Each structure stands twice: as structure tokens, then as C-alpha cells.
Amino acid sequence: MKAIGKIGVAVAGLGVVGGAAYGIPHVVSADGEDGSAAAEQRLRAKPEAGPSTAASPAGSAPATAPAGGKAFTLVGTGDIIPYPSIIQRAADDSAERGGYDFRKMLAGVKPIVSAADLALCHHEIPYGRPGGPYTGYPLFKAPHQLADALKDTGYDSCSTASNHTLDDGYDGLVRVLDHLDRVGIRHVGSARGPEEAKAPALLEAGGAKVAQLDYTYGTNGIPLPSGKPWAVNLIDQDRIIADARAARAAGANVVVLSVHWGSEWQTAPDQEQLDLARALTASRGVDGLPDLDLILGTHNHVPQPYEKINGTWVVYGMGDQVASFYEADKARGNMSSIPRFTFAPAADRPGRWDVVKAEYLTQYSDMRPPFRVVCASCDGADGADGADGADGSGRSGRSGRSGADSTYAAVDREVTKAVMSRGAGEQGLARATR
Q1: Could you give the count of Cα atoms lying within 13 Å of 108 in the half-sphere of its Cβ?
Q2: What is d(CA 412, CA 137) in angstroms, rounded to the nearest whole number?
Q3: Containing H/E element for 231?
Q4: Lowest CB count within 10 Å: 37, 80, 149, 158, which one?
């Protein structure tokens, strides 16, 4: 896995564009977030499904085919939201007094993440000042040691634009980016300056340059920092298309869109997700080829469907990777999917890579002590009886396995039902077990 930095590109401005509003849910979500307040910040998009006519940046000819290009795998995971109980678990897991160790709770999915050629996380929340205080909903602040655990788990890049990006103001945003830089994880979606805001995260795998873009519907009514309109990328259909084309012009062979969108606690994608997904996947550059190669959605707290639209895979919502919802009616918030896509060079289109294999795994934030994130669909997924395995994953292999298997099997069925609910199985998506 190799990150090759950020490429400077020319992008569209941050202004509002015409068309139907993306999106204004006049509801208060199940965890108390005021959707209508956040919606006041939503920019406007054009949800029509026809090919975009947005201006293409100069020099947006197809990228040249790298010599010796080969297939590579890309995985994504959902929202990382360390509630106070999770932060306390990290403190308990740390061998250092006053420290925080998130590595053990992620060890159960490390084999999947680290085995991928590229692994993308969604970093939902800001970091607090060293020593805290660290807080949960509604204004999250987590310890910066989370960045070390993400690096140890195998992540290459993280999207950072969300409705919680500004929970601790601009300083909290900066702390996240500084610590991701410190551990060597690329990031996109929020920025410390206008030039950084113009650049996607650019990674490399299989000889291909892979650009990651990222945008959010809003920041929970918290205004963008004064004089810093570039601090958080907000959803704007024309800007997304222009940024994708600029990334192509700068050499990207694959463009992946991470997007924080949709309605919380809703398994089915809402109309705004459907409209924007259709419009973005229909968009073609001057070469007649798709502007985007993959869309990975976050924000919904629950697993949502996968669907191939206009030839491009869309994951409407992966669900939360790290969360701790205790209420029975929110149990789905501890379930998520891990999409894994294999890209290979397109023989008939130099400089392009196609998805040749689409898979998913199911994931569970097992809140029973000692709290571990595990792969529910993986072969031998057991150990939810609370004993740590040698790898810290919570897989003990002890007696009592049948209860653990029953829990994980139920999670696997629930996530699979959501993932497949728009016909992805008939479109070629397969469930993976390792």
C-alpha cells in the first residue's frame, strides 16, 4: 500500500449552484440530531440522471496507462465515532498510564484492512486537546491516539468531512489532520488551507493512481470558520464532477468518491441519495468515460444497500465501524459492511481500471466486554463471550462459542439483507468470508 501524497488541482468554486436542494430532511434523528438545522447548510445539486454538462478543466484528457499495471483491491469502512464508553475502553486497554490504545478493539478487522492494497476509513470526529476532556454526543472529541491505531490497522487514507468535523471548532479539525500526517495516513474532506482543500488524496496501487474525494451534507448547523470557507467540503454536484475531472487531468486512473449523506437510521437510501447517485454515475468526461469509478457512503449509522448504477458501484451507506449504541432499537447501529472491490486495467481503455470483482464482508461492534470490532461473516467468527484472544480480537475459541456464533450469524444476516436489498446480488456482488 503506497500513498503518494496530494495532487494540486483546479477545482470549481464553493458557491451554490442551481437545481433542486440536496437535501432537506425536516426531522430530528433518533439520536437527537436536528436534521433540519443541519439541512440549512446543504448546498444545492442537480439531481437529473442525464450526463453532466459541467465544464471540464483544461487538460482533462485520459490518464496514460502505467507500464505493468495490475489488479488491486480496495476496501472501505464506515464511520468511526468513539463514544465515551469506547474511549474508556481504549484507556483500559492502554499499558501506559493516562494513555489510550484503540488497537485491540480494531484487531479483529486488521487482517481484512491490512491485506487490501488500499484501505479507506471514515474519520467522523475531531481530536480534543492532549489530556482532554474527551466527549461524546452532541459535540465529540476523541484522543489523538486513535490515529496510531488506524495506522496500525492498515489504513492508507481517511475521509474527514462529516456533520461532526467542526464539533471542536477549527482547532479540532486541525488536530485530526496533523495527527493523520504524523502517522502517515492521507486524508481528504477537510483542510488547513485553500490549497489543501483543492487537492484529493492521491494513492497508488497496482500501478494505478487512485484519487479519493470527500464531501458532507453539512456540519450540524455549526458555521464554517470565519475566513475559511474551504475548511470542510460541502456537497455540490457540479463541484464534485469538476474535482473528479481535475483529478483525472492531474493523472488519476481511478476516482473514488466518499460522501457523507442520507437520512440517519434509515436502511433504504433516501430520494436525495438516489438522485445524486444517478446524476454522478451518469456524468461523463470529454472522453465519454465515467467521471467516478466508485461511491462510498457514510452517515446513516446503519448498513445500506449496494447498487451498480450506470456501470458504477454505489455503496449508499456502510454503517458505523466503531460505535456503541446500547438501546435495543439502535442495535443496527453496531452493524456495518466492509466493501471490497478489485480493480484491474481496462484492456480497451488505456489509463482506466475497471471493477472486476465486487465483494462485501459484515462487521459488528461487539459491545460485550471487552468491546471489540469483529468480522461477523468471516470464517470462525466467534469469541463474543468476552475473552481476549491472543491477537486482542476477542476471539477466544473457548466453550460457549455457540452463543457467539448465533450473535454473529444474526448480524451477518441482518447486514446482508440490507446490502442486497436493491438487487446487488444479481449485479455481481458476493459475500466474502475472509
Answers
A1: 31
A2: 28
A3: none
A4: 37
